[in-house]
Design brief:
The structure holds 2 protein chains of 2 kinds. Chain A is α/β, with parallel strands linked by helices. Chain A has 7 helices and 10 strands. The radius of gyration of chain A is 17 Å and the shape is globular. In chain B, a hairpin with a 2-residue loop joins strand 12 and strand 13. In chain B, helix 2 packs across helix 12. The radius of gyration of chain B is 34 Å and the shape is elongated.
């Protein structure tokens, strides 16, 4: 069943007389529970696509439907509610709140999400129960990204959006993070959308959407995706 | 190329740069303005005093000074110049231009040889010692529409003085033109001053003597046509000289002798004790120097507070800018720029801000000074001077230079801190230390909600920002409580004077030398209380002996707590300003001027004296001590219209008119309060906005993250405002007592001039708190509003 539907979505940035078409009439659908990789080189428009899907940005034209709601028509507060309940984010540079401890960073989302899961359980699932009272600055990059995943899942969202989640990590840690991400998503039945320029990660995906110059060049379904520890880069 | 970077970086931190320029402008401007104010008073009045040969000493004798007395005093070694002097308050007759104009009076002055206590001619004829005209105060002339050439008639004892106004003048003797010690502010509509020549005085006295002699002859049965001629033969130079000897009740002199030496020399020459009043005891000089002292006292608190806040704002802001610029500093270092070049580059910011702040501050300082000290400024109605040139205290120049240097130094040190280590170290972004504080270790902390924890940690980890914000709020609160409290205190003082001290309707002033026996019928007819004021020396210190009979409760004296005192007949009361002269239970010795007697009296209490430095006692006690006194005033419930003409009455003062004369004084206080309130609001807004924006920029990534996670803008805004509310609550808790303390300190420092009791109304507390909260919340709202426009994608990218 389709959970995401993009219909002729364009995003145009203007600066004076200059116009940049980041996305150009993009249309596709994503099914629930799938692991989707959006692949493309720098400047292809993949982050714009993710931002639109995450409700961080709005399309210039076109319609985006997520779980039956047209999010392109939501106002700021409705978009905030959408982000609080429907999507979880994992960023390349983690974006944890430096003044909150590990536990507080995860627990934080429970304040705004109506169906939040138990924060401690999430931290336990990512294997960092010993670091509950540490601040992010006291953790390694991989550990911070694991906390970021715990925070994203704690909201119990329908879709997990990941922007280059392994971009700042070494390959071993990257594999570990990807494995965790897949495992958690499968266990909790989430749809995962990863944006990356890394071809190898695409090998793990159920669906690969190739983007270039703001347009979708191909949508490929993979019947036998690789497991995380089979991927090398 | 680096210059372009200077400009672009300054532009990108424009809010911070503008704040720092405003703060340094405020700091330097307020500092300069307040210090220029007192220096201008000293400078302009000093020049005026010098130009008009303002007397260093005034010798008073109720029986007057003869030519021989004058010659003896002028011959004292160390007396440079001397002149017999007459200053007498005379009513203007309601004739000509003064028809139906009500009571107006002038102090008529004569400086016999015009070497001391002279005047400055503003327009008209030069002073002529043989002239027949009147030289009139230009302000009085303007207020009463009198022009040169107009005629004026003054009631002089039972005679009159008439003349044409030949010149308009300003005189240092009357620079603060007050009719008597009850008047606080000059009112040129009803009171001014004028000079006539000694020749004219002589002519007036001759005419008066002729008239008296003629009247006596006519009374004795001499025919009128003969009486005039006969009187002319009776009144010769000798009689006129005798009359002059009586009216010249003062000798004004210029001398650098110490007061005690002069007193001794005068006693030796004349063989009697004469009341010697030094210029610093004379109302004009004393008030002018009091104003300058008051300005110095004020100048040593508020401007210093502003200057310190300006420098602290600079420290906090430059440190934060340097921290944010760390990577750029690292890049410049990695590119091969020497540390000295980078330091010079960033020091320029501080220098630039300091120079701009000094330039704008000089303009602001001049504006503040002119707002107070100019002909149309707040002091314009108080001082009457020909020149209002603004003057700067010499120490201000190096201090401003030091302030500019400090600002450049702050930039220098902030960047030097970031340049430590090698280029790679400098390239690494600044990461604030993150470890648990003691507070976070307490059990209750875990139970706090996210917003509270977030804000507590933010404050604990940005202590300089936290402290500066607090200083800004406390400063704002201190200025508000101080300013509004000063007004409350003044209003309380007037209320005390109106309702607790003065219960009379009219104060009737009696002519000099009116003894009790002469006045008792009038006292009885007016059903009044009476008072005697005379000069005394307490161990060489000049004070006023206030003998009071207030059995009818027309006038009261109050204690330190403003509670009425029932006058005891067992001892005297010493005013708070003379507290150091004696303690309760001590005996004090004093000598009235004009005699050789010394009296000893027990002090039974302290009283709050409204105007003068005084020793107060009951009439009964004075009589039991054998003090001979004259009645100065009677306080009665009758209105001025109900009081019949009487030769003993020299003037009548309606209490309401007296209270109204305080209103212009209150308007000066209001003006200063307004300046303080505006300064408080600007200080609060600039400091809080600057720090709020810095804090917002520092936390923009966290705020964007919260927004991405699904926090609504309103919720994030409330997080930011919550911190402002906390700091405002703490600031108010500290600022309120601090404001009261500063005000109390100021009142104590000014106690030599006024005996004001600190009074603060609930309105002052309420307005100060509400205004401080208003400023804080307004700034919080402005900063929180920016959150709505935060670009989540850009903010998160910036972190990369």
């Amino acid at each position: 069943m389709a959970i995401v539907k993009f219909e002729s979505v364009s995003r145009v940035y203007t600066s004076g007389d200059h116009e940049l078409r980041a996305l150009d009439r993009v249309s596709f659908t994503l099914d629930e529970g799938k692991f989707v990789v959006i692949l493309g080189p720098s400047g292809a428009g993949k982050s714009t696509l993710l931002n639109l899907l995450g409700g961080l940005d709005s399309p210039t034209i076109g319609k985006i439907t997520v779980a039956g709601t047209d999010i392109s028509k939501l106002n700021d507060d409705e978009l905030a509610d959408y982000r609080a309940s429907q999507v979880g984010f994992v960023f390349q540079f983690y974006n944890l709140i430096p003044t909150l401890t590990v536990y507080e960073n995860v627990k934080l989302v429970a304040e705004i999400s109506p169906k939040a899961l138990d924060a401690k359980e999430m931290i336990e699932r990512v294997g960092l129960l010993d670091h509950l009272n540490n601040f992010p600055a006291e953790l390694s990059g991989g550990e911070q990204q694991r906390i970021s995943i715990a925070r994203a899942l704690c909201k119990n969202p329908q879709i997990l959006l990941c922007d280059e989640p392994t971009g700042a990590l070494d390959s071993a840690t990257g594999v570990m993070v990807l494995k965790l991400l897949l495992e958690m998503a499968r266990n909790y039945g989430k749809t995962i959308v990863i944006v990356t320029h890394n071809q190898n990660i695409a090998k793990m995906a159920d669906v690969v959407i190739r983007v270039k110059n703001g347009q979708i060049r191909a949508i490929e379904e993979q019947e036998n995706p690789l497991a995380a520890d089979e991927v090398e880069w | 190329m680096l210059i372009r970077k200077v400009l672009r970086t300054a532009w990108s931190y424009k809010a911070q740069f503008i704040s720092m320029i405003i703060m340094s402008t405020l700091g330097i401007g307020v500092f300069l303005g307040f210090n220029m104010e007192w220096r201008t008073i000293e400078y302009d009045t000093g020049n005026f005093f010098a130009d008009n040969n303002y007397a260093d000493y005034r010798l008073y004798s109720e029986s007057g000074f003869s030519k021989e007395d004058f010659a003896a005093i002028a011959s004292i070694k160390g007396v440079d110049k001397a002149s017999r002097f007459l200053a007498v308050n005379l009513d203007i007759k309601n004739e000509g231009k003064f028809q139906d104009k009500g009571k107006k009076s002038l102090s008529l002055d004569v400086s016999e040889n015009y070497t001391v206590s002279t005047f400055t001619l503003m327009s008209g004829e030069k002073y002529d010692e043989n002239g027949d005209g009147i030289w009139l105060s230009d302000k009085f002339a303007a207020a009463n529409n009198i022009l040169e050439g107009d005629s004026l008639t003054l009631a002089f004892q039972d005679s009159e003085i008439s003349g044409r106004v030949v010149g308009l003048i300003k005189a240092a003797e009357h620079m603060i033109c007050l009719a008597d010690s009850n008047q606080l502010m000059p009112d040129y509509n009803i009171y001014g001053y004028a000079y006539i020549s000694p020749a004219k005085l002589r002519a007036v006295l001759r005419e008066k003597l002729l008239k008296t002699a003629e009247a006596e002859l006519v009374k004795a049965g001499v025919p009128e046509e003969v009486a005039r001629q006969k009187a002319g033969e009776m009144v010769g130079d000798q009689e006129i000289e005798q009359a002059l000897n009586k009216v010249f009740a003062a000798i004004n002199l210029r001398s650098s002798l110490p007061k005690a030496s002069l007193e001794d020399a005068v006693k030796e020459k004349l063989g009697r004790t004469i009341m010697v009043v030094a210029k610093d005891e004379h109302v004009v000089y004393k008030e002018a120097m009091g104003e300058a002292k008051e300005g110095k006292t004020m100048g040593s608190v508020l401007p210093v507070l502003f200057l310190i806040i300006a420098l602290l704002t600079m420290v906090t802001t430059m440190h934060r800018i340097a921290t944010k610029e760390k990577t750029q500093i690292g890049i410049l270092k990695a590119l091969g720029f020497k540390n000295s070049t980078i330091l010079l580059h960033y020091s320029f910011y501080g220098l630039f801000i300091g120079l701009l702040g000094a330039a704008f501050g000089a303009v602001l300082g001049l504006f503040v000074c002119k707002a107070v000290m100019s002909e149309n400024g707040m002091m314009g109605t108080y001082f009457d001077m020909p020149d209002w040139t603004s003057a700067v205290p010499t120490f201000c120049y190096p201090l401003i230079g030091i302030a500019i240097f400090l600002m450049a130094l702050i930039s220098f040190l902030s960047v030097k801190f970031q340049l430590r280590g090698n280029a790679a170290d400098a390239l690494r972004p600044y990461i604030p230390k993150m470890h648990k504080t003691m507070l976070e270790g307490l059990p209750f902390f875990e139970k706090l909600n996210f917003a509270t924890k977030w804000n507590v940690r933010d404050l604990l980890r940005h202590k300089s920002r936290f402290s500066m914000t607090l200083i800004g709020i406390v400063g704002c609160m201190v200025l508000l409580v101080g300013g509004l409290g000063m007004r409350d205190t003044m209003a309380g003082f007037l209320d005390l004077l109106d309702n607790d001290i003065s219960h009379y309707v009219t104060k009737v002033n009696l002519v000099p030398n009116t003894g009790y026996e002469q006045a008792k019928d009038l006292i009885a007819a007016l059903d009044g209380d009476y008072e005697s004021l005379s000069g005394i020396s307490i161990g060489g210190y000049t004070a006023v002996l206030d003998i009071l009979s207030n059995e009818k409760n027309r006038i009261s004296i109050v204690d330190e707590d403003n509670k009425p005192i029932a006058l005891s007949d067992d001892g005297a009361y010493i005013c708070l300003r003379l507290k150091d002269k004696a303690s309760i239970g001590d005996y004090i010795e004093f000598s009235p001027y004009g005699g050789d007697e010394t009296y000893r009296v027990k002090i039974v209490g302290y009283n709050r004296s409204v105007m003068t430095e005084s020793l107060t006692m009951s009439a009964k006690l004075a009589e039991s001590l054998g003090i001979k006194y004259n009645i100065s005033s009677i306080y009665t419930m009758k209105s001025t219209a109900e009081i019949p003409q009487n030769e003993l009455i020299s003037g009548k003062q309606d209490k309401r008119q007296l209270m109204d004369s305080f209103l212009s004084f209150v308007s000066i206080i209001d003006g200063m309060v307004l300046i303080l309130v505006i300064a408080a609001v600007i200080l609060g807004i600039v400091v809080l906005y600057n720090l709020g924006i810095m804090s917002y920029i520092e936390r923009s990534r966290e705020l964007a993250t919260l927004k991405v996670l699904g926090f609504r803008s309103q919720k994030i805004g409330s997080l930011l405002i919550m911190q402002n509310i906390w700091l405002t609550v703490i600031g108010v808790i500290i600022g309120l007592p601090a404001g009261v303390w500063v005000l109390n300190w100021l009142l104590n420092a000014l106690a030599g001039e006024y005996e004001l009791k600190l009074m603060l109304g609930w309105m002052t507390y309420t307005v100060s708190i509400l205004l401080t909260f208003g400023v804080s919340l307004f700034v919080g709202w402005l900063v929180a509003g920016k959150n709505k426009k935060i670009d989540m994608v850009e903010a998160l990218k910036a972190g990369e």
